[in-house]
What we know:
- By secondary structure, the chain is mostly helical.
- The chain has helices spanning about 10-20, 25-35, 40-50, 90-95, 155-165, 165-170, 175-180; strands spanning about 130-135, 140-145.
- It has seven helices and two strands; from the N terminus they run H-H-H-H-E-E-H-H-H.
- A two-stranded antiparallel ribbon has the order 1-2.
Amino acid sequence: xxxxxxxxxxxxxxxxxxxxxxxxxxxxxxxxxxxxxxxxxxxxxxxxxxxxxxxxxxxxxxxxxxxxxxxxxxxxxxxxxxxxxxxxxxxxxxxxxxxxxxxxxxxxxxxxxxxxxxxxxxxxxxxxxxxxxxxxxxxxxxxxxxxxxxxxxxxxxxxxxxxxxxxxxxxxxxxxxxxxxxxx
Length: 184
């Protein structure tokens, strides 16, 4: 790291520019342009601290017209804090859809079998390994435990639930659901 010594005129310029309310980046740029130096923002901040001028807070500007840039505000659309037309790719992440109509819930498939809820250690080689639970934290995962179908890890009802070609071809969600979440 190269050491730079601040000349008295550089320090005087720093003190004057700081009193005018410039940021340390602006101070370093101004001193560099005036004296053909290569001070960084951090060098100007460190020198100001050694001179007893620096605080991390920025003083109020004294030059007319020198104000902080205005902070961007979120556009509003009918009382909602985002404009869907502005950034359509981020729209679904930031702005949830407001549903005004009833959407029919998809019909869920389930197996017509009451599971035995065996733990993994209690399963025998011929038992169905269809899992139940384990979705929530600290929730135990259990398994169906009924006799499994030959050539499968599942009993017949769970085999058809997971691999039935007629129901696996058609989508579970209908067009209204896909449209509601913006997938179509």
